[in-house]
Each structure stands twice: as structure tokens, then as C-alpha cells.
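Hello,

I think I submitted the flavin-adenine dinucleotide job twice by accident. Can you confirm which output corresponds to this input? Input:
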Amino acid sequence: METILVLAHADETGSALTRASLEAVTAGLELAARLSAPVTIGILAADAATAASVLASTGARLLAVSGEAFAQARYATDAAACEALCRAAQATIVLAPGTSRFTRVAAGVAHRLGGFIDTHITALSGTETVEVSRWFYRQRVEAVLSRDARPWFLLLDAGTHVAFAAEPATAQVEQVAVQLPEIHTTVSGFRAPAEDAQTIRPDAKMLFVAGAGWTKKQPDGQIHAAEAGELILGFLHATSSSLGSSKSLVDQGGEGEPVLPFLTHMNQIGQTGATPRHAKGLSTCCHGEEPHVVGWRFIADRRAISLDPNCGWTRGKADVVYIADAFPVMAKVNALLEAKKA
Ligand SMILES: Cc1cc2nc3c(=O)[nH]c(=O)nc-3n(C[C@H](O)[C@H](O)[C@H](O)COP(=O)(O)OP(=O)(O)OC[C@H]3O[C@@H](n4cnc5c(N)ncnc54)[C@H](O)[C@@H]3O)c2cc1C
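Support: Only one job matched these inputs. Its output is below.
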């Protein structure tokens, strides 16, 4: 019989689990129920007892490594902590969120345990054996994998499961001792881009896509790139949405055309860009051509604002299309959002 371990880690507060970790908890509980297998949740946090309180109702065995050494992401301490949790749980299947923190250490931990790892898992299935899904070739080919090797580590893509939520309660947590190696790395602090510069937010509820129309000549014969930038940033600021772009818009920089300074190729959505998993998407000044829309594969609720009534969005690629000028529409939307805040 399989034994399932879900690895979870705290956010920067050190006492609350990350959303991606809570999604992995849901995946673990669902898999355990399907296989009638025991499930353990292993927590890595500065204050694991508080972080574990939300898991009290899961019925899972709770293991934790706690302390200042685990407040920061660092390979040596995180790998030692995950290894200790895995050894204590004796798990055959280890699920972990594909966060930057765990992505960095999971393969090393799998190697230390003589196991095998698969990454970018989007679904778990099977009742007799464990089957996992992942996409290849820019999300065009979906593969279903199963393996005999154990322990089998599976890194889950964010946004593929509902985050586990429950009222916090006192949880029974077993502390696991970790033999720390000699530590050569000291985390002295963070240097993060300003809030407005950090426009790619995988955890955001909504994706806002800017298309090349924002920097094209408008009906008055002029380009309004500065105004476009203000409207887009104003919306992002008010909603904390993630910013995506069409390829044409991010390519313009190299072609000497007006650019929005906060956009890079990292923002590009589509066949040769990203395929994010936000619940909702709003496309603006973008034509909705297939190579772009293929990047919206996982976005269920889609809206678009376009001047062109024959654009791709109107051809069945969006749920709602507003045939309108995005400049006044977004100005009005931003004003309404501001008024709501006040
Ligand atoms: C191999 C290959 C791979 C590709 N990969 C990608 C990819 O990964 N991602 C991607 O995005 N594209 C990709 N493309 C390019 C794609 O085919 C399109 O060229 C691109 O998506 C067009 O971008 P756009 O819609 O922003 O620009 P445009 O086609 O220039 O459309 C601009 C739109 O803005 C509208 N507009 C203008 N002003 C306003 C206004 N004031 N209000 C409302 N609407 C307005 C116009 O009506 C127009 O519909 C790829 C192409 C190829 C050949």
C-alpha cells in the first residue's frame, strides 16, 4: 500500500502555509482518499505549530521541522529538513508544491532517498496505481505517467488544485529533529523589485493582458503610450492582477517602436510564451490570434476589450467581448475601483 507525504512550507511570515502548499494538501488528501492510503503532512516553518493549526481538521499525521534555521529558503537547511521529514514519514509518494523553494531542493532530496522525481504535475488520478499528468511541448501534448520507483516525488504546478481551507485549531504536531550540515550561506535580507515593477503574479485571481493596440495610433492619429502605461498600472495597482502581454507588444522594443517600460518577454502569454492558470482573464487591445490564445488554455472565464468586431476573441475564444475603445473603458474601470476603495 502507498504511504503519502505532502511537503508544505510557510510563507515569509514563518507561521502561515503558502497557498501552493495548501493546494498540495488538497491533492494529497484527495489521493489518499482514492487509494485508501495513510497521509502525512510535513511542515517546514520557523513557527510550524501555528502554521499547522489550519491542518488540524485534515485527520492527517502532522510532522514538522521548526526554528529560525528554516525561516529562510536556503538549499542546505531546506534539503536537510525535507530529507528528515521524508525519512520520518517513510512515504512512498511525496507530493510538494512546485514553488521556487521546493523546486530548488526536491530533486536533491529525491536523490538522497534513492527515489525518483517528476515535475510540473497538473493532475493525479488512478485508484489502483498512482497516475500523474503533465504537459509537454508548450502545453500541446498531455502525458499520463506512472512509475514503479519509490519513493516517487511529484512537484505540483500551482493553480491545479483548490487550496485547502479550514478554521484554525490546535493541531497535534510531531517535531522531527534535523541534523543540520555545516551552513555556508547566510541570508542577509531580500532585495525585491518595487510593487509596480513586479507585474507577474502567479497567485493573482486575474490575468490582465495588454496587446499591441495600446501603443498603436489611436482614432485621433496619435500614439498614447504614456497614458496606456498609466491606465494599465492603475488597474494592476487596484486589483493586484498579474500582467500578461501579447508577443507583438513585447517585441516592439526591439523594433524601435513605443514600448511600455514595465513589460518584458517574461510577460508574454501564448504559444511561445507562458500558459498561466488564473481563474479569470481580461484581454485589452489584443487581437486574440490563435498563437496568443493558446496561452489562455487554463483560463476559464475570459473577457476582452477590442475595437475590432471581427477579432479572434469574438470568434468563440472569449466569454464576453466588449467592442469598445479600451482607453476610456479602462479609465472608467479604474475610477470605479478607486471610488470603491475610498
Ligand atoms: C510561431 C508563432 C508563435 C507566436 N507566439 C505568440 C505568443 O506566444 N504570444 C502572442 O501573443 N503571439 C504570438 N504570436 C504572434 C500572434 O500571431 C499575433 O501576431 C500577436 O498575438 C498579435 O498581438 P496583438 O493582438 O497584441 O497585436 P495586433 O495584431 O496588432 O492587434 C492589436 C489589436 O488592438 C486593437 N486595438 C487597437 N487600439 C485599441 C483600443 N483603443 N481599444 C481596444 N482595442 C484596440 C486592434 O483592433 C487590434 O485588434 C506568434 C506567431 C507565430 C507565427
